[in-house]
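Teaching note: in complex prediction, the entire set of molecules is handled at once rather than each chain in isolation. The prompt given to students was simply: 'Predict the structure of this complex.' The entities are:
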Amino acid sequence: MEILFAASDRDLLHSYGRLLQLDGADVTSAFDGIQTLTYLESQRFDIVIIEETLHRVELKALLGILNNKGISSIVISERRISSEMLCERDIACSYLPLPFLPDEMRACLKSVLDKKQSGKSFAAGDANIDTKRFLMDGVRVTGEETDIMGLLSREEPVTVKNKSVYIDALNIKLSRLNKTSRIKYISGKGYRLVNENG
Amino acid sequence: MRMDKVRSKIVLYSLASVFVLLTAILAVINGLNFTMAADDADKITQTIADRHGSFEGGTGVEGQKKNPAERAETKDIPDSGDKAVRGTEGHPKGMGPMGPQSPETNKSVRYFTYMFYKDGRAKNIVYNISAVDQYDAYYWAESLLNENPTGWTNGTYRYRVYKYKDRTYVTIIDQGRELFPSYRILVISVIGELAGLIISFFVLQIISKKLIRPLEDADRKQRQFIANVESDFKLPLTIINANTELIEKENGVSDETSSINRQVRRMTSLVKDLRTLSFINYEGDTVREFDLSDMMISVIDGRREKFREHNIDLTMDIEDNITIQGDVERIRRVIRELADNSLMFAKSRAKFRLVRENERVKIIQTNDTQLPAGSLDIIFDRFVTLDNADTSDTAGLGLSFVKDTVKAMGGRVGAEVKDGEFNLTIAL
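The expected output is the structure of the full assembly:
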């Protein structure tokens, strides 16, 4: 597994870089945006982990480049995850809010890489989810959102952490895509994908 | 925004104080003025009463025409009062050239007196007035026979009702000219007070801005500090977590690394509380329309299992399709806090209602709970946790957050305990 870890905090880079190396990954460290872009031009990576406040680059622009190249990304976020953040045009495959435990980082990495490698396309309501490319009818979605849509398509309980934020974001995206499907909470049944018109 | 409210309150309370003070002072001044005017008028009517209905004395209109010598022959007329009225012995004690008993008074006062016999007959003693005709004067005097001995009548007229032998006299004097300056002072007082309030308002606007600046700075620094501390703690905690694991991988688990893990967990909990405080202080701008009914059902019903574990019977009465404009995350947090509050304090029953009443949307939470005495006054304060085993891990910010969020939306929050039930009502 080739990982590019981009963070301006050297202690963060060192600690997690070392942990991931001990887990068997090949980790390249970048201290700022310029170095990150240089590495991206010259090497191939399976995934890029980016600290949200990485110096010398605009995060949205960097995520745009990664999405265009088809490279998966995880953003270590200082902010609360909000539905507005998730509805931007270019987003990461997953967001990891601070503070987190090493196991949470591992779980997030595994989730993203599993989807990248063996993700399938499926229909949920009148929306089409491409898990491998983290897209819903051409609109970027996070791994958590594809998980939620998958659970909903099978009418299983939604067990994703912070699900309310992701569900909110999904409803906004479904509305923007002019889809009739919406995610609603049904008392006694939990979240379900329903047709807005009936 | 909060400082604007503080500033508005300063201006409002200061203006209210100025208004109360000015009103009190001007009320006293004008009250004294009118009281003294009434006193002066009473002195005049008393003088007339002492002389049985007229300054010149006498029992009829003719009495006015008699010369002093002729009048002195009449039994009813004392012959000493004339001098006092005329002031021939100088100014008696308490009188002055402008006072009610000045020598000019008998010439300047416009008045009339009627005498009423027991059998109902009446006689006009003096008619020295132009504004009232004799016919009206008679009926006016008759109407005052059963009134208080003295008082104001018809605005600016002062009257006195008095008896002599078996007859009742009514004297009415016109004090319009004497009262005119008093009324003028009253009008000027009112205009002056209004002008004073307007000037005070503008002055307070300027002064309050300067007064509030240090408070604004302190408030901004406090919010910034809380946000910075919360933000600055998160990354170091994450790094400490990673380094502790690295040490354990390379050297094995030890008491020291276990201790580090415990302390990190404590600090992470503190960071969560700071995050809540930061969230409370954040005045978010992501407002949009959303389905509140759906949100309430998802948040509360999503905790149904927890209510069951706590043996609390959960009831929901949620009206469908209620949408509101607001910050989605903050409102969701408000509902979560209400649900968690119920989980902490309800004994066996918890009910949540969402209804639309007129133009407002109401969320009502009802628990069968026993709050400690006096706690209703403080439950919405920050960092208040009531005596309850389940509250040991909370920072006491939940209901404070609820109140701040609802107020920021222009809504109202209220709580009461009635028949052993705690009711919290939010009106949006």
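Point out the following to students. The first helix of chain A runs from residue 10 to 22. DSSP finds seven helices and eleven strands in chain A.
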